[in-house]
Amino acid sequence: MSIGKDVPMSEIRLGIIGLGVMGRRTLDVAVGHPDFTVVRASDVTETDPGVPFTTNPEEIVTAADVDAVYIATPPAFHADLAVTALRSGKAVFCEKPLAVSLADAQRMLDAATETGLANAVNFALSDRNAVRYVAEADLGTVRGVDIRTQFPRWPRDFQATATWLAGRDQGGFVREVLSHFVYLTDRIAGPLTAVETSVDYSDGPDGTGSEVAARGLLRAGDVPVHVSAMSGLAGPELYEWVIWGTRRSFMLRNWAQLFVTEGGEWQPVELRGESGSEHSRLTLFAEAIRGGKSADLADFAAGYRVQRAIEAFHGLQA
Ligand SMILES: NC(=O)c1ccc[n+]([C@@H]2O[C@H](COP(=O)([O-])OP(=O)(O)OC[C@H]3O[C@@H](n4cnc5c(N)ncnc54)[C@H](O)[C@@H]3O)[C@@H](O)[C@H]2O)c1
What we know:
By secondary structure, the chain is an alpha/beta fold. The chain has two domains: 129 residues, NAD(P)-binding Rossmann-like Domain (Rossmann fold, 3-Layer(aba) Sandwich), CATH 3.40.50.720; 144 residues, Dihydrodipicolinate Reductase, domain 2 (2-Layer Sandwich). Helix content is 29%, strand content 27%. It has an eight-stranded mixed sheet with strand order 8-9-10-7-11-12-13-14, covered by helices on one side. It has a six-stranded parallel sheet with strand order 3-2-1-4-5-6, with helices on both faces. A hairpin with a 3-residue loop joins strand 11 and strand 12. The longest helix has 17 residues. It starts with 11 loop residues before the first strand and ends in a 5-residue tail after the last helix.
């Protein structure tokens, strides 16, 4: 996966598309990142990001002076932008979820495979020290995984302006949050297939609102993966992922707190090393552009596998 010898080792010319919550955050990181120069940015809404700006994202994905593109639009727009960028010779770092349908995710994976260009998905857990710790630990035989998330309010406060998250066509916590934990389970336990999945909507099956509850049984090979997620309830916001092994089990709570048990009470794990960030994932993306490959950065193939599992909740699995 490389965009070849024409890319200077010191500077990758980056275009950024979508300047909302995530796009702004990554823009701030990328302008100070030694591997990148942000040469262009785009949003459909007029704004001044401090770099050359256009309201036409098509200009970025086809621009001759752009080597790589970071896409942080709402997910329904990822596929067309990513496919055009790849087919125009650009490496692509795309926000999760890859897309809003398996067909779009497949188009993206096909373009990545056929062009051979660097491709990555920004799953925030991919380079966490907690995740590396679990990946390297001796669990014995893995007997099961539990994923539990709950949200007092959906969308959450930090994304209150991202109104698409409340809609069924591209929002909902299954795509927005469960995708991270499906990615993590795929990474640690292997590719998932859906056995039984369902969601509830507060405005009924024919409404437009995103789900308020999701539950399911998936399997990573023989390993059962139980999912339970709810929104609009009295209680703390919670993100809990537990992997049960015969030798030891781990619980990752609220993204970064890792606990272990070898039979007794959960004990906190003292983690060392970098905890993972937009900065470190941009570094891994730069390495991928220069021909490297890291297990700590998700690629479109992983993004596709995640899409297959999460779309099963919406009854859209092929
Ligand atoms: N990796 C993570 O941890 C993480 C966290 C939050 C969000 N996300 C993902 O990032 C993406 C963006 O989420 P957000 O919270 O920033 O949403 P947002 O609504 O805050 O931002 C999206 C931006 O894209 C712009 N936009 C809409 N359509 C566009 C188009 N066709 N071309 C260019 N710009 C367009 C909007 O004007 C808006 O500024 C989503 O895929 C979301 O799932 C990832």
